[in-house]
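Suppose a colleague, Dr. K., hands you the sequence of a protein chain of 223 amino acids and asks what its three-dimensional shape might be. Before reaching for any lab equipment, you can write down a predicted structure in token form. Begin with the sequence itself:
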Amino acid sequence: MEEDYLEQLVMGSPSLTSRLREYIYIEMSHGIKVSNLAGAVARELGESEKFCEDIVVAGLLHDIGKLWVAKYLESAGNEETLSIEKMKIVRMHPTHSCNILKQRGYCDRITEAVYYHHENVDGSGYPENLQGDQIPWMARILRICDVYCALTTDRSYRRAFERETAMEIMIDEVEDYDMRIFLAFQRVLHSDEAGEKLRSICTVISPLQKEHLPLFVKEAERL
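The predicted structure, expressed as tokens, is then:
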């Protein structure tokens, strides 16, 4: 089972705290979902095979910088860090993700997509408040897929939204997204094979993803 594969990766590092192991598992699971959905949307947009491979890797690793965030907050203690300060720290994760991947030799297209995946086309995102075509195309695809996967996943403060509710929330915030990509994203979700596609998006781990997933553990061990 794919869950067993992730557990083996996490448990293979006895030096990590149980809390950090749990966090790694969560981030790997989220990365897999974003990665698979982003690959499907890229193919729907008619992108090249190389582009699709790169976005699969970018989607998988886009939040790897959150390991630094988790370690920082764990060492600071929940009561010692104010909510505003926590938000500032959390918003640094694209920078940390980008730096990690640059140090590991990932190509510019992947590192840029990871760095800008929280930008919105109306300029309301971060870290640079870019607008429209200023945002790399791959990052605009990741943005939509990341939001959807976050909305449809259980969080500590809420249960996962159903697909229809998640779509309603995203439509209400449609000014954040590139419309061409958003329409392709909707086609992927509402295709005749949507049920099967979404199940595979949530569960299947490809050989390409297995090649890059160990980086989560390696980076956590370096913290």
